Each structure stands twice: as C-alpha cells, then as structure tokens.
Structure of Uma2 family endonuclease:
Amino acid sequence: MTASLPQILNLEEFLQHPYLEESPAWEYMDGVAIQKPMPKTRHSILQKRLLVEVDNHSDDYTALPELRCTFANRSIVPDIAVIAWNRIQINEVGEPEDNFTQAPDWSIEILSPNQKANRVIDNLLHCLRHGCKLGWMLDPDDYSILIFAPQQELNVCRGGQQLRVLEGVDLILTAEQVFGWLKVGNLYLAPDD
C-alpha cells in the first residue's frame, strides 16, 4: 500500500518536506506526494542483478538505485536510473552533485505488489517526454517487461525475446534470463558471462 501526504502546493514545498528521504522513497507529481511501496525480495533481487549487469556492460553509463530525479515539475525515484557519465554534474572537488535535475537516459521500474501500474507508466512516459531514451517496466508476476522508447509503440517482451537496451550498453538479455534470476540457486547469467 502506498501512502500519500495532504495536497502539497508546489515542487519546492515537496523538496523541503522533512520525511522526503525516508525509506521507501517519496515521489511528487501533480501537486501530490506519494510514497512508493517497500520493495520485496523478488524486487530487490531483480534490482540488484540489473544494476550489476548494466554496470558490467558499459563504460559510458552508470546504473544507480533509487536516485531522485527532479525535473519538469516532478520528482521521481526510479528503481534504477541509468545515466551517461558525461551527464552527471561534477562539483568543485570533482565529485558528483547530489541533486540530479534531469530525466535519466534509461529508467527501469520493477512493479511491487499493490503498486499502481498506471502511476509507474505515467512516470516512465514523463521521463520519455523529457529526454529519456528508454524505459522498462518489469512485472515479476507476469514475467513480462514493457519497453518504452520515444516515438515508438510499446513492446511487451516475454520469454526468449531480446530486450532493447541503450546504445553504448553492450548487454544482451531476454525476459526469460531476467526472471530466471528469481529461481533460487539458478545461476542464469547473461549469455556472455
């Protein structure tokens, strides 16, 4: 179940909210703050494995868990935000700025039990409208991955169908491989591992 705060007038007020960074994360859209559901075991396994796979297959991008992305009057926290290294702002001591104020290059969401699919889809579409190149929504109950790309029809991938990834991420995966990671004791790895 997700929690929501009373109506918040604007994004700046939301970003000042004292409970903003508690776990699970809070998101802001259309004047309302909503807390994401707490991840469960399957969600966490998929998130961990995807982070490792993307990072191990690209020097141009980094995969970051639960990074707050605040842009275009919305503040969202994708399960995984894949961002080109050259888009990360660096401070005067050579470290990344704490606040990321753009859409990620690739936004990956993993549906949790009781999470509203339309809210997740809305966030993915918002990302695409503001420069995101790719979105995934994993449904662990359906063993499917919904692929979002700018100006392209949605694509539902299941089984052995190869998943689209960003150019610059040298990773070949299928939905079957991704959901195979949920089988206890299964060392189902990407083909080149």
